[in-house]
Design brief:
The chain has 12 helices and 8 strands. By secondary structure, it is an alpha/beta fold. It has one domain: Alpha-Beta Barrel (TIM Barrel). The chain has an 8-stranded parallel beta barrel, surrounded by 6 helices. The two termini are 15 Å apart. Bound molecules: 2-phosphoglycolic acid. 2-phosphoglycolic acid binds next to strand 8.
Length: 252
């Protein structure tokens, strides 16, 4: 099974409102020549979602939420549901990002519920996993990554190949310290093997993105690795040209 590459831009708490619309337009323009075997996604803040989705109508760049709450509606002040994201024009949602886990106390169980809610609603989850520097130095990388993965992999297996996993070593996010291609490939291969133990079709069909200080100048060596199917890009996704260069670095 051939997997298309997926390059997703996580705008985090940046580019809301008119700035987001402008950035989305620039991304659509800059990525026009990206090869057809690459899918493109941007994840603006909630307040910009509908306007960005409108700006990207008829364009190949799709829209993601950065989070959701597992309930569809009700007394959950401050939260956004999967159906609301769909209504705003999203087809994707980033879940369990390390900033959510570290700053907002998201547990494996909550990330499971979020992945389940996304799958149920027909929103494609990009579920994030990754170890901290302390965990890597204690040789606990795979233990941590497998624990996070096992929390939701059965949900992904309900529709093999639909959900996406992002491996983002926490020590590489926003630090400029990118994992070497060897370090990344090693973990990606281990994740795929873990999926294979559950269901070989799931393992073959699931895109596993790398995230953590991906830039135009390191994207090609990462994307050339056999088990790296794309990138979840933070800082560099706020520059349309830089984001397009990353997308163009995917092997054809
Ligand atoms: P970064 O962020 O590219 O700025 O390191 C990646 C992410 O948090 O998804």
């Amino acid at each position: 099974m051939t997997r298309k590459y997926l390059i997703a831009g996580n705008w985090k708490l940046n580019a809301g409102g008119p700035n987001g619309v402008e950035l989305a337009g620039a991304v659509a323009q800059a990525t026009r020549e990206v090869a057809p075997n690459v899918e493109l996604v941007v994840a603006p803040p909630f307040t910009a979602l509908a306007a960005v989705a409108h700006e990207l109508e008829e364009k190949r760049v799709e829209v993601a939420g950065q989070n959701l709450y597992p309930k569809d509606s009700g007394a959950f002040t401050g939260e956004i549901s999967a159906p609301m994201l769909l209504e705003a024009g999203c087809r994707w949602v980033i879940l369990g990002h390390s900033e959510r886990r570290q700053l907002f106390g998201e547990t494996d169980a909550l990330v499971h519920d979020k992945v389940a809610a996304a799958m149920r609603a027909g929103l494609c989850p990009i579920a994030c996993i990754g170890e901290t520097l302390e965990e890597r130095e204690a040789n606990r990388t795979l233990e941590v990554v497998f624990r996070q993965l096992d929390a939701f992999s059965a949900e992904l297996n309900k529709r093999p190949g639909y959900g996406v996993i992002a491996y983002e070593p926490v020590w590489a996010i926003g630090t400029g310290k990118v994992a070497t291609p060897e370090q990344a490939q090693e973990v990606h291969a281990a994740i795929r093997k873990r999926l294979n133990d559950l269901n070989p079709t799931l393992a073959q069909g699931t895109r596993i993105l790398y995230g953590g200080s991906v830039k135009a100048d390191n994207a090609s060596v990462l994307l050339a690795c056999p088990d790296i199917d794309g990138a979840l890009v933070g800082g560099a996704s706020l520059d349309a040209e830089g984001f397009a260069k990353i997308a163009k670095a995917a092997p054809r």
